[in-house]
Amino acid sequence: MDEVEVVVAHRQRATLRVGDVFLKVDGDPAHADVEIRAMSLAPVPTPAIRWHRPPVLAIAAVPGRALGVLGEPSPASPAAWAAVGAAVRRLHGAPMPPWPGPGLDDVAAELDRECAWLLDNAVLPDAVIRRNREVAEAALRPWRPAFVHGDLQITHVFVDGDEVTGIIDWSEAGPGDPMSDLATLTLGHEERLDDLLAGYGGGADRDVIRGWWSLRSLVASRWLIGHGFDPAAPGCEFDVLRARM
């Protein structure tokens, strides 16, 4: 019998691996619904769905290995990063899903809310929070919505050599700012941005991507702390924020 591996677990959801199948258990059925629909629409490699019996979604493992992990250098080649950039470009150029995504006002309100919490709780020096709030302003501009993954962490992209073999975890997908995907993918791996954009092509705004690095790190910190993750680990969100100083 295959062993059960706990991939990630917190109060909102858990992901288990049994052999070549991942079991995603989520208390909100809307997340699985979005994931299933998004994977059916995305013009990039995605996992095969084995079955869906709420609250469990079973998907097949994808071949290859993750592009990297936050806090460690990516082992992938520049060509692999360029291939990922080309895949993300295909996604952003595809017809958008028919459900709404977050708007500019929503993003700005969440950013202000999370910055206030960080300041009130002295999670980081005030100067670090305020400087990154200034940098994040570059991301707070009207954008042309595209089909975005919404949570394109480096661990959600798999490659085999220089080929993209799968992109996983689509529960946040929908219309959104394409620069946010590029920023999330290179968060803590700023040195790989040139490789990514070599495959993505024109139209990327580096100032906006930098703004999203700060914005995502500020907004994510409270959630990470509250769910047992450590944004202060080397190379993670707090280091991203300090690097802007």
Automatic annotation (TrEMBL):
<dbReference type="InterPro" id="IPR051678">
    <property type="entry name" value="AGP_Transferase"/>
</dbReference>
<protein>
    <submittedName>
        <fullName>Phosphotransferase</fullName>
    </submittedName>
</protein>
<feature type="domain" description="Aminoglycoside phosphotransferase">
    <location>
        <begin position="42"/>
        <end position="212"/>
    </location>
</feature>
<dbReference type="InterPro" id="IPR002575">
    <property type="entry name" value="Aminoglycoside_PTrfase"/>
</dbReference>
<dbReference type="InterPro" id="IPR011009">
    <property type="entry name" value="Kinase-like_dom_sf"/>
</dbReference>
<dbReference type="Pfam" id="PF01636">
    <property type="entry name" value="APH"/>
</dbReference>
